[in-house]
Design a protein that fits this description.
5-stranded mixed beta sheet; 10 helices; 39% helix; single chain; alpha/beta; globular; disordered N terminus; 13 strands
């Protein structure tokens, strides 16, 4: 293939303007613009920069992530929208006291983990536990919101307390972490069946398709209260001998300004001391409020 050896200035002939080198052409075009129009262009460019800076500064809110469907009563959702819950009310009250806007997002738990792992430009808050460690670029605010205990939901009236899960076929929620149960499943002590939601897991227990359903007792209480059929065989057995109680914390992005992190921690300490945390807890559970083991 042949290449042209023409220089830019020889690309055109005849008209002196066309014969000018490209650099000269740009200069001639710029000088031919009306002075008012040049000022207009400069003004618009400045406005674009200011607008961009303003947009970045305007998003001073903290983005709060809510687990869709399966986190009640910690986070309650209805039709894909946040509808309160223990952690949601605590977060909303806390950031309101700090006068920091809170922007809420609802998504499945695994989707939230993916989103927050990739999020590096905005401040966010969610919840986590030390035993889960599910948010790789997150950091726990080291003030426990409350403690959780696990229980076995079952229909076996002869089951001894505390429950022995050996040889059992256990339902768990898909996408949630149960480190102790996973270890027992790997060594063959029991078998696990992931279910999409509480309704499916409870149905399997009623139909005796599984030996039981393991979850946090406060969550199981909430789901049992919602059942329309009050004449059921379902009962709870404590599993503290299998899964140690642990604390739930607020988690924030590790890159959040240290001053804001400290304000969040200080406010949580105040809310725990003045009874605000236990008051929110009591709205959703009759179980004793625990914040330390």
């Amino acid at each position: 293939m042949k290449h042209s050896n023409l220089e830019p200035k020889a690309l055109y002939s005849g008209n002196p303007l066309k014969a000018a080198p490209l650099k000269r052409l740009r200069s001639l075009l710029a000088s031919s613009l009306p002075q008012d129009f040049s000022r207009f262009v400069r003004t618009m460019a400045c406005m674009a920069v200011v607008s961009s800076n303003y947009a970045q500064a305007a998003d001073q809110s903290v983005h709060y992530y809510v687990v869709e469907s399966n986190a009640a009563p910690f986070q309650i959702t209805e039709n894909g929208q946040s509808a309160g819950g223990i952690i949601t009310q605590i977060a909303e009250s806390l950031f309101s006291k700090l006068e920091v806007p809170l922007t809420t997002h609802v998504a499945p738990s695994k989707r939230i983990e993916v989103l927050l792992t990739a999020e590096h430009s905005r401040d966010w808050v969610a919840y986590d536990a030390k035993v889960w460690d599910s948010l790789s670029n997150g950091e726990l605010i080291d003030v426990p919101l409350f403690d959780v205990h696990h229980a076995l939901l079952h229909c076996n009236p002869s089951l001894k307390e505390p429950a022995d899960l050996a040889k059992m076929h256990i339902a768990i929620l898909k996408g949630f972490r149960y480190p102790e149960l996973s270890a027992m499943s790997l060594d063959g002590t029991l078998s696990l069946l992931e279910t999409r939601d509480y309704a499916q897991a409870i149905k399997l227990v009623k139909l005796a398709r599984v030996s039981g359903f393991v979850e946090m007792d406060v969550r199981l209480d909430y789901q049992l209260q919602k059942l329309s059929d009050k004449k059921h065989c379902l009962r709870l057995s404590d599993l503290s001998n299998v899964i140690d109680p642990y604390s739930i914390y607020l988690a924030v992005n590790a890159s959040m300004d240290s001053t804001l992190k400290q304000k969040i921690k200080d406010q949580l300490i105040l809310m725990r001391k003045d009874g605000s945390l236990s008051k929110v807890w009591s709205q959703f559970s009759n179980r004793p409020y625990l914040h330390e083991h």
